[in-house]
Amino acid sequence: MDTTDVSLPPINGDWLKRAKRRYNATFLGGEFDRIPVDPMMLAHSTVACGYTIRDFYEKPIMAVKCLAYAQEVYDLLPVTKYYFAHPWLPEMGINLRPMELTAPVPTNTIVSEPEDVDKIRIPDKKEIMSGYSYERLTGAMDYVKANMPDMFVPLAYCPEPVGSGAELCGLEQFFMWTETEMDLCKKLVDAYIDTASVGAGCIADRYGMALINTGAVLENSDTMSPEKIAQISPPALNRLVKKCLTNGAGPQIFYHFCGNHKDDYMLFKDKIIFTPFTIMQIGYWERESFPAKVMKETFGHACAIMPSVDTKFFVMPDQQKIYDTARQQLLDGRDSKYGCILGTTCEVPPYSYPANIHTLVKAAEDFGRYGTW
């Protein structure tokens, strides 16, 4: 199917105006009707419109059309945010294999032995701009800018630098080196940072600015000790964001901390960069959603927070559980100094039940309305 042939109703202008005012209130101050809701939607948008998970990753124009329509149908954010796993790694030599039910996955490594680390070559701007990641990301963004300009937000997607650096040698090798050769791990992460920040700069050159999307996923309380996380993760995020900002990306930043961060979240306080347009999202406190109260107390002085509901609930027929969890998160986080957005602990599952996403929005309507606290 030609991705430009996807036929969906036009975005309702009245909804878009309300959604923009709601979202802008988070950063610019003032109050509107309720707290925004962002279930971090990717492939659910194509599935909800009758297509496939694979379609989302292989057909960027189809993806952004479906994303925009799903955002309106569920009354979510007034923006599209097209991205995929492992951007900028193909430009470093990593091959990605399309999958039917997940994002594309790496099929090779470029580092086998310690001496290979110093041989990694960082692609220049010309190579980045002719590569897989840039062409797919800008293809989607160009379409939105030309056809849905009011929903256009340029995105410099530079996912977790530690996990992305680990893909260069393979996760098993990387974890072994964190025990025996931490300096090699840091070099791998720096190589990814140097590449991704060039990509972020190229996107900023094209659009004038770009929201920096990054975070910490591989390194969490289930996979590394706090001591090792402190050595590698906050310095990596700080370096990545600094380089992206220097290259023209930002000033918006979205930090996505997936996984269990109960024992390491405090390591990032005052150790990474926060701008006036930053959102902090943390997934889990052991097996539960990370408490909004803790997030507010730790990061609410510096940025907007995104308390979340566990994504596993969205593939279960238990709307009350979602409602009750969202209610508590909203009550604990809605008055955070720099704003609050209700989200999900990670990407909302592609086969989520629509009623579950509506339940998340209903909780925001019931417990996230300004003037009620």
Overview of the molecule:
The strands form three sheets. Strands 4, 5, 6, 7, 8 and 9 form a six-stranded mixed sheet that branches. A three-stranded parallel sheet has the order 1-11-10. It has a two-stranded antiparallel ribbon with strand order 2-3. The chain is globular and about 60 Å long. The protein is α/β, with parallel strands linked by helices and 373 residues long. It has 13 helices and eleven strands. The model has no long low-confidence stretch (mean pLDDT 96). It has one domain: TIM Barrel (Alpha-Beta Barrel). A hairpin with a 7-residue loop joins strand 2 and strand 3.
Number of separate domains? 1
The H/E string reads HEHHHEEHHEHHHEHEEEHEEHEH
How much helix, percentage-wise, in residues? 40-55%
Spatial shape:
globular
The CATH C-level name is: Alpha Beta
Low-confidence stretches: none
Strand % is 5-15%
Strand count, sense and barrel status of the largest sheet are: 6 strands, mixed
Q: Overall pLDDT, averaged? A: 96
Count of alpha/pi helices: 13
- What's the Cα radius of gyration? 20 Å
CATH fold field value: TIM Barrel
* Secondary-structure arrangement, i.e. CATH architecture: Alpha-Beta Barrel
Q: Helices and strands: which structural class? A: alpha/beta
- For the secondary structure, the number of strands is 11
Distance between the termini: 50 Å
